[in-house]
Amino acid sequence: MLQDAFVLILSDRPGPAAGLARGIERVVACTCLDFGAGLPPKRPLAVVVDLDTPRTATAAVTEALAVRLRERPVPTLLLTGASRDDAGAADSFGAQAVLPAATPRETILAKVLEMIDGAARAAAARTRRLNQRAEVATGIVTDLFFQASADRRLRDAEADRGTETVLAAVSEAGIRDWLDVVWRHDAQVYQHTLSVAGYAAAFGTEIGLPEADHRRLTKAALLHDIGKSRIPASILNKPNGLSAEETALMRSHAILGADLLRAQGDVEPEIIDVVRHHHEKLDGSGYPDGLAGAQISDLVRLVAICDIFSALTERRAYRAPLSVTEAVRIMTDMRGQLDRTLLNAFAPVIARSACQIWP
């Protein structure tokens, strides 16, 4: 349960901090944050703040930690000193517990261990919810592809349920943990669908999309490859290069998917647009319609970035997954093909996908 977990201490009293850290390390790893360093990339299990002087209370790393704790709360213990005004400090750090710094170390340690236990239980509950949501989303995607392959009417309510499930999972657990779960799926096309939907959910949060637009983006990503339900598995999973005829058939999935959804009669035109045009490029070199520039909607541009990054970093039948660095280099080199502003905005999502950074 505590694998890779750690407690973070920010203190300007090295002696007491070191003693507290030794006690904590009997249970879990502990890091004492240096005032000249940045915040750790990973989210700690709990935080102890012990600042006794105004200088350290206003240091850049202190202010950064306070902001981060307000954005993405972590169980926090604030130790109050006698030499500075602590009014408002608990609110500033979002502290759930406050003790005088002069409190005996054993009492402080007991409080920290109590916080660790609560945080570990909460993390275990989050993991259970994540696995349950991934199972639900996988079942929905599997059913949607089956219905589409059998030329049956898709249940739009199920697509909506899948969308809400992905949004809830990524919002609570983050994109890295979502990918870790969905990448266990054996069927690559379902794995890719759930990955792209996860990236879209994270991207929408990153750029602050309104709720309705955020939901539409995630739903479009969930359905973007529905046309692959009509492509033979022998082509989808071919371990070497496709022939010209096979490539043309593979590329037809965009039109097949859009036609399938249009025939439903109740799918938003913006989502059908994404399904048909997510392989278009701004310079007109994409398919199936060779759209360029302003002909390509913002929603399509967003999903295209998620789709390409996901595809590059996934294992495919014909190649191993590329590293994040390689994928970023390839996408950066796609000059004139991807929306540069949106690609830059996607960078924090890339960072979080590579490591469960905090937040």
Automatic annotation (TrEMBL):
Keywords: Hydrolase. Gene3D superfamilies: Hypothetical protein af1432. The keyword Hydrolase applies. It comes from Methylobacterium durans. Residues 189-312 form the HD domain. The lineage of its organism: Bacteria, Pseudomonadati, Pseudomonadota, Alphaproteobacteria, Hyphomicrobiales. It holds the Pfam family HD_5. SUPFAM superfamilies: HD-domain/PDEase-like. InterPro entries: HD/PDEase_dom, HD_domain, HD_GYP_dom, HDIG_dom. GO terms for molecular function: phosphoric diester hydrolase activity. Residues 167-359 form the HD-GYP domain. CDD domains: HDc. This is Phosphohydrolase. Coiled coil: none annotated.
